[in-house]
Fold:
Amino acid sequence: MGETGLLVKRAKENDLSAFEELVRIHQNRVYALCLQLSGNRDDAQDLAQEAFIRAYRAVESFRSEADFGTWLHRITVNVWLNHKRKSSARQFVSLDEPYRGNDGGEVRRELAAGDGDPLQALEEMEFRGLVRTALNGLSEEHRAVLVLREIEGYSYEEVSRMLRCSLGTVKSRLSRAREAMKRKLTEMARESGEFPPAGKERR
Amino acid sequence: MDCREAVTLISPHLDGALSIEENSALAEHLAGCESCAGEVALFERLAGALREVGREEAQAPPELCGLVLGRLRNERRSVLARLPAAWRRSIAAAAAVLFLAGGSAWVTAGLNVAGVEKMIGLGTPAKTDLDAGGGSPAGSGGGSPDRVDPGPAPGAPGAPNVEPEGDAPGSPPGDSTADPADPGSGTGDVKTNARDGKITPPAAVSATPEGERVLLRSGMKVTSTILKVAVDDLAAARAKAASLAAGAGAGAQVFPEQSGGKQIVLLRLTVASDRASELAAELAGLGKVFDRQDESRDITSLYNETLVQYGDLRSRISTTEDAAERQRLEAQAASYKRQLDSWQAEAGKRVITLWLESK
Structure:
């Protein structure tokens, strides 16, 4: 953090190489959020790029006691909201775009990470794949609130700030998003017959 | 607690947002209700999977960093950052003075101009200057009092014709080179070829319509000098400086004002290179020189780069539908344009910023 603080200070003084370092440190997290929010790689890259550009322009307004990563995420969500507003006519249909199809390496890593039982690891991985697909099939509103709360682990307060809505809205939207997620998964399970909807078999 | 009530608590329960009482009430219900317990189990599994999704390292594409930095390097702010240090300081000084002066104190010195072939007659409004020095990225460098306007003194005999630069006759002023927001359009936007008092056809590239700006100029060089002189009589020195500048064929802009309780006058002179040394020496003779900085800079690549950016902006404007975005882009383009114009005007010339203060 001390290092980040120093880099931020230099970036505020218009030091591009310091900012470059900050981009390198944070690009994976920012890109990951973009990917989760947009649901596809092309948009994710554009969003991430725009987010960093805005961050640089606004770096003077960054208060050093805040967390730089969170601040970047907030900007990212902003960029995404603006982007969404502009392209609201265009809806992503990402259900038939399996997320991990693009990267075989991910599959291997997940398998290796499972502790002990390869079958269980495989199942978990498949479940995760379904979850991801279901997530991409949600409305953007629902997806955003789930991504920020469940994946990124932000508090209600932080999420409400990022999405510019009230705490109550965050709570109710989260609840609806989870319901929608469940419906989606159930639907997918019914279609493929692969996934027992209640998930009881392991509990 | 019934199932309907329990279901509403599941989501906040997952977020750890329930009170102790609510939690235990929910737990009690779950213990006796298989369906709700299954629901919670599913949601927990879902949450776990989502967390896992978040834990999988997404690798940013390798080109991301380069793309970001590439764009930033071309940004206006870095353009300013790459301006010569003395230039930046002079902009800041002029802006500070203007700030104290307020917009109305801005005057154009009435100087007779000779030997100046092309002159961009843009009355730089004080407002813009303030923006430039006030930390606004929009005006960085570009809106500084870079342009020197050889306008006639108010009431000067034989005041030449006045015409907005670069516009077809009859077209509204404030289009091509004049800032549309310029509140002082009436006072400063005069342009003349002092040799014969007639209007000079705009020779500068900046006078061509948008998009036809000549691309890729070579050998653009800006030389600047900052000269600070302490004098006995400020008013007399100012008049003398003005006449010296006129004698050397320099365009001048004068900003009289206080600085930190001390009376100072700031003149910005643009003079042909071959007469610059002579003029600088003459100006130095006005009093006691206590600071002098010279800087020379080849701005060819900077100019061309900015030009490309500008063209890019123009095309983005034409394809942008979002009004706010469009406005932002236009503001940006305008500042690029100001910058280009000022480089255009100053290339091959010497810019002398003369700072006069009483001893």
Residues 13 and 252 of chain B are 73 Å apart (CA to CA).
